[in-house]
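Diacylglycerol kinase
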Amino acid sequence: MTSTDLHHDDLTDDVSAPRLAAVVYNPMKVDVDELRDAVEAQQSAAGWPETLWFETSAEDPGQGPARKAIEAGATMIIVAGGDGTVRAVAEAVHGTECALALLPSGTGNLLARNLQLPLADTGLALQAAFAGQDKVIDVCLIDIERADRSVDRHAYLVMAGLGLDAKMLANTDDDLKAKAGWLAYVKAMIAVGKDDSDLRFRYRLNAKPEQAMRAHTIMVGNCGSLPASIELIPDAALDDGLFDVVVLKPEGFGGWLQILSKVLWENGVLSRTVLGRKLRTNDVDALNYATGTKLVLRLNRPEEIELDGDGFGTAVAFKTWVDAGSLTLRVPSDAA
């Protein structure tokens, strides 16, 4: 499948196919009794059979329950949880015939934000699941090498990062996050902002020659919108067969001003209109963009890494690539 096959008109809905829904839910994020009532109402209205239910745990955040749901015959899995639950379930579902539907919970809801799906309306989210359409998107895969030379593979839907975002997540107080949401990230960002150490690494993007670089932060995005209406990568698309690489290289206060101007003004304001997009500038010294399908990167020392907003320990190297069109999502029927 080529990237030209994967655009927003790739929406289908075959009502004649066998249908069976399953809910994979994080019991710490949802009110299960209320959710069961809402699911039963929507499945009945859409003429679906009784929904299956699978609970995640600290030991298994979603991959195992998702596989059990597929083995039980589910053709659609509704994910009720935060970004970590969505990522874990998608890791098991991508590449199968089963579709994924999102019931956002938690503070981030990054994939739902990028798809402009309902964030606070359970009824609308479930209506999209049971009576919506299919949309095919890309999934990014990553092999993370650890200091002991072991390698583990994961999927991510939104973003992988080294540097500011990963260190920030590693310093986030989970108790404060549960009580105060994004205020916990602000506290962590202040702490990390005092760390001026750079990443030093060698990398190879696609088939280009290997290069060396020093940077503050590097992020690989399957899509580009963050909470608080921050458009980190305004041209990123979930269905273009590519990922976008963002490198932050600020030199002092002036470099951070360049980054803030680019992200908050050009990406966040100008990019919302056709005329505004024509006024955007090229890369600035402190912020560079690139696109690709495969990136291999090796660090000079172990660094914190994050996937879709969750810390994944430290890495000494990674290889990431795009699995184009490998995940089917349920979206509202008027998405086209």
